[in-house]
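Two proteins follow. First one:
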Amino acid sequence: MEKNIITEENQYSFIVWANDLKPPSISAEAFETLLSLHLPDWIAYNQITWISAYTTLIDAVREHASLAEAVKCQSTKEPPPKKDIRPEDPERKRDLLASFFPK
């Protein structure tokens, strides 16, 4: 793929390209808002490629959704969903490792 740098001349082509690639699970409103927020900076600095800008947008939208979910959990006093975290205690690590092998 050719490395396209976002410029004043190709910004609308970039917007169409990015919208075509946007996953359906991502809100169009959030995507467009962040795009309109960042696009002037990307054009002014003239240093960012299309794929870098697209990746930045997707990551930012997902991070905003994650933060919104955390705030929602705090406001309703529900604990956030637990993620799989490795045990720090050596004894629990040993027990977890042993559980993978048959006795």
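Second one, unrelated to the first:
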Amino acid sequence: MNKKIYTKQYYENFALNALKKYYPEKFSECVKSECPDWVCNNVGLEITRAITKKAGKLDAFIKEYIDKEFSEIKKEHLQKLGFADKLTKSNFEYLYETRSPKNGILTFLHAKDGRYILAYHTSHTEVIDDCINNIKHAVEEKLQKLNNNYKRLEENDLAIIVQEQLSYNGIENVIIDDISKKILDNLKNIYNNTTYSIIFDTIYIIFYDNIFAVNTKNFCYEHKKISSDAFHSLAIASTK
């Protein structure tokens, strides 16, 4: 990990790398563009992020401390965000974490030299409703731009990055069922009430550990799980 993480370019790279990995038949060959972000053969791909003001503050914190050792992080900064000032072992080898009831998890890599390096942040699933509202806002905003500003291709797709982890606490199936239903219900509501003539054909909702690909013609979706190893590989590749 390095300072390139949590930048606009990082998220754009992460989304594209995830789509290339899990949908290679569609996204293996892409050319950088503007409005939309990428052109993949006859598919236009726009990438955005569902983010809250709270997440924006966390971004600022992480940009300041990413790649730094735990002891370099000021305790008052941790405490202000509700994080414990001590690390505990996570379920994964070489990873340690500190948790906040409101702001999620900071994960640290236990390096070979003994240091604990801040690697990444994930939020709690208690903010699912906030996630849905942010996804809804992102879709509405991008629909407006698609109809007013963007080049339209034979197919127009949207990828939305959500800074959340769904697969933990032993209740992932309940969480995934809940959030997938809410995503579909909200997208149906947007599309049933839109006045725009051009719509996104497929909307990819990309979490840190899950992808939902929603076909907006029939509102069926395909679900793919991103393993922990795959996430780390995608994250590292996206900083380059």
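SUMMARY FIELD: The longest strand covers residues 43-50. The mean pLDDT is 87.
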